[in-house]
Amino acid sequence: MKARRQAKILELISQSEIDTQEELLRRLREAGFAVTQATVSRDMRELKLMKAVSPSGKYRYTAGREENPDLSEKLKTMLRDSAVSVASAGNLVVLKTHTGMAQAVCVALDAAHWEAVVGTLAGDDTIFAATHSAEAAQQLAARLSKMMG
Questions:
Q1: DSSP the chain
Q2: To the nearest whole number, what is the mean pLDDT of the chain?
Q3: What structural domains does the chain harbor?
Q4: Does the pTM of the predicted model rise above 0.70?
């Protein structure tokens, strides 16, 4: 549950200009998570969220841009719990997950900020990750497969 909640936090802050813990708490509750302010605060600390200026000039929570070992560890946990298979196809990596988990895993993958990943797209149980080349896709698929356990 913690991994799903933290993935949802990353998804929320990537899609909206959330600037207070209270707003994040409200959004999580609206998304069906029964959380307390203390839990949200702890998650934010573990995710190492920071405030940055958005294009609109407003401060908002963001995840760091550098590859974060803590976020990579969270991705590893999510992959072990949710991933079914991974394969490369040309410059794409196709990651299959249990039904309903692709978006959460995709948010965690995006938050890891791996240089090999140009962009991602998630459905209900499938993630497409684009890379610069077929070789990069093969390496990414191998890395994800290793993380899956």
A1: -HHHHHHHHHHHHHHS---SHHHHHHHHHHTT----HHHHHHHHHHHT-EEEE-TTS-EEEE--SS--HHHHHHHHHHHHHHEEEEEEETTEEEEEESTT-HHHHHHHHHHHT-TT--EEEE-SSEEEEE-SSHHHHHHHHHHHHHHH-
A2: 88
A3: 2-62 (1.10.10.10), 69-148 (3.30.1360.40)
A4: no
